[in-house]
Amino acid sequence: MNITLKIWRQANPEDAGAMHEYQVHNVSEDSSFLEMLDILNEELFEAGEEPIAFDSDCREGICGQCGVVINGVAHGPEVTTTCQLHMRSFNDGDTITIEPWRATAFPIIQDLVVDRSALDRIIQAGGYISVNTGAAPDAHATPVPKQNADRAFEAAACIGCGACVAACPNASAMLFTSAKVTHLNMLPQGQPENLMRVKNMLNQHDAEGFGTCTNIGECAAVCPKQIPLDVISTLNRQLGKAVLKGV
């Protein structure tokens, strides 16, 4: 495959940045999208040019480290992580536009790399549990209703890649925040602080500069782990309880 790439290049946070065009030749359709970028970077390095900076780690769709906007869609045309996207999803001769996540809360560091530490701070705002567990209990010592366990497991699948923020017209991180709240609050260990956790995490969400959720649904549409949109409803119910109880 011969591909034309239009890639956002930005040397540092203060740089204005601009789109640059590159040609990549003889790319196998079985190559992953990131392997295609590796091939381009090898060519740039050999030509004495600065390689394109992008995030990646496990390249197995687990860590959530990778993520770019491809032809206007977070993670590209398939509902998966960028590292699990393959070039067979494109055609020979295609022009592909590649940009970083665009959000005030995700400042660009260089090229396609953005600072997503705002998501870490939202989790940190949730705090810890205060239950004295003592020694490690048996796995079946605390019964958990299957419905709650399944719901918590579903929400825990969130890998924090930030695609929901990149896809949202408001740059909201509500799907991420709701997934973390739902995961923690559906299990017995998370019950004592559940209302305070919701309030603190939402306050941190707003303080980081993320936008307001208007239930458009673009976040769930691009989520590589298929976090359902209704986790936001779960968070809103918990928030309502916190307000009524004056937490």
TrEMBL record:
UniProt keyword annotations, A-Z: 2Fe-2S, 3Fe-4S, 4Fe-4S, Iron, Iron-sulfur, Metal-binding, Oxidoreductase, Tricarboxylic acid cycle
Cofactor requirements of the protein: [3Fe-4S] cluster; [2Fe-2S] cluster; [4Fe-4S] cluster
2Fe-2S ferredoxin-type domain location: 1-102
GO molecular function: 2 iron, 2 sulfur cluster binding; 3 iron, 4 sulfur cluster binding; 4 iron, 4 sulfur cluster binding; electron transfer activity; metal ion binding; succinate dehydrogenase (quinone) activity
Domain of life: Bacteria
The keyword Iron is assigned to this record: yes
EC numbers on record: 1.3.5.1
Pfam families named among the record's database cross-references: Fer2_3, Fer4_8
Segments traversing the membrane: none
Top-level enzyme category: oxidoreductase
InterPro entries: 2Fe-2S_ferredoxin-like_sf, 2Fe-2S_ferredoxin-type, 2Fe2S_fd_BS, 4Fe4S_Fe-S-bd, 4Fe4S_Fe_S_CS, Beta-grasp_dom_sf, Helical_ferredxn, SDH/FRD_Iron-Sulfur
Details of cofactor binding: Binds 1 [3Fe-4S] cluster.
SUPFAM superfamilies: 2Fe-2S ferredoxin-like, alpha-helical ferredoxin
GO biological process, one term: respiratory electron transport chain
Gene3D superfamilies attached to this UniProt entry: 3.10.20.30, Alpha-helical ferredoxin
Reaction equations catalysed: a menaquinone + succinate = a menaquinol + fumarate
Domain spans labelled 4Fe-4S ferredoxin-type: 149-179
Keyword Iron-sulfur found: yes
PANTHER family with a match to the protein in the record: SUCCINATE DEHYDROGENASE, SUCCINATE DEHYDROGENASE IRON-SULFUR PROTEIN
UniProt family annotation: Belongs to the succinate dehydrogenase/fumarate reductase iron-sulfur protein family.
Entry-linked NCBIfam families: dhsB, PRK07570.1
Annotated protein name in UniProt: Fumarate reductase iron-sulfur subunit
Organism, scientific name: Gleimia europaea ACS-120-V-Col10b
Biological classification of the source: Bacteria, Bacillati, Actinomycetota, Actinomycetes, Actinomycetales
